[in-house]
Design goal:
single chain, 6 helices, elongated
Length: 237
Amino acid sequence: MNSPVSAPLADRIEDLLPQTQCTKCGYPACRPYAEAVASGEASYNQCPPGGAEGVARLAALLGKPVIPLNPANGAERPRPVALIDETLCIGCTLCIQACPVDAIIGAGKQMHTVVPALCTGCDLCVAPCPVDCIAMIDVTASLTGWDAWSQQQADDARDRHDFHVMRLRRDKEENDARLAAKASAKLQALEAEAAASPEQQAEQARKKAIVQAAIERARLKKEQMAAATATSPEEKP
């Protein structure tokens, strides 16, 4: 995906990243890393999946010298794909939650499996697995960096990651809406209750205050999420 020269620098940097969303650069995804490089907060040699060619691409864009990949972020290597030992999988869903591109399918207490064509080799599913049933298998022989990964694969991975982020946000908003509706119904029920004694009235008032506070927290959180969405760098046209 190529941006015109007039595009923001972070956009042009992001276009040169492999979009594995692996976090090895020290940032939670490729987009935040692109923002950090554009602002000067991060160096342009922190992306192991891009390897030496990735550093060279970014150096050319930034008008800077080609430097070695920072070993603190990892080494350039053949592209791996996650493989789940289905005989050991306990269906905990932790790997599904960790995958940034929704390349793992399965359900709670059922066997999971990886869709190889969708896996970016990010390694993020390995650590959360409580039974160590996930292995990373090299699938590109001696090819590493951009030789092991195409621009089309990078573009597709970015689209899947964007959808993943949108889906998580949507699921959270829907859950928050359900909780808000439940709290509102509880408040209405409390207001409809008859309280005869002063003690009952005090207890009813206490419960109402708790529910009203919960509703207000939910309202503020919704406003904060809306504001964050409006300014999120991942929400690009």
